[in-house]
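Example (one chain per record):
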Amino acid sequence: MTGQNRIGRIALDDFRHTALGDVGSTNTECLIRARAGDPGLHWITAARQISGRGRRGRAWASEPGNLYASLLLIDPAPMEKLHSLPLAVAVAVHRAIQVVMPPGSNPVSIKWPNDILIAGKKCCGILLEGEGLPDGHHALVIGCGINVALAPDHGLYPVTSLQAEGATVSPDELFAHLFRSMGEALNVWNCGEGIAEIIAQWRSAAGGIGQKITVNLPDRSLSGRFEGIDEDGRLMLDLGAGTVQRIAAGDVFFG
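Predicted structure:
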């Protein structure tokens, strides 16, 4: 997805892939290449990350055995439409994980906005980062850390790995599925024009709708009933007494 606000299908052959050994962070590698003029649609994978990071600057343990993959996009959509991209990414990662799970395994679901859970345990971290480039274009990086063999405890949620849930898959095999599912999801998303279909796919895979949740915001916590997401992808939290709070960003906890 390159060129200013391009709308149209992307062929899988349009994507490139560079596999590395030890890196600081696959997201950082993508941004370095973007600053040097990389045209985007470029996957960077690594065997290990020395300085992996999660949302809000949290450290992300990244030892060999798991999948560490980042996709560089240049000018993926008008800025006002980028808010829906995390939902498309969640759909893609969910699909890649679901396809490698054995019959009868625990359910795979999406926790708003884009965490992937297996039986309520987190198995994936997704981090989107972007920056303006000197030539006026905008770089956006989709970073995915998926627990294949290891389940490092990051302290916020219960965690699991695909192998602990019965999947016999290697990081390389899982990446092949992610490579395809991400291309498919980005085509449906279509620079933000396909948000309605992405939201429909997201809802079909969502976990916790109708349950009591707590959402941690930067300045406070809110508890209520998870009513799903609206047409812009915002979480709808029923606080009771007819009040529904729409939330654009926050950390969700069930129960």
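Caption: Helices lie at 26-35, 85-98, 171-189, 195-205.
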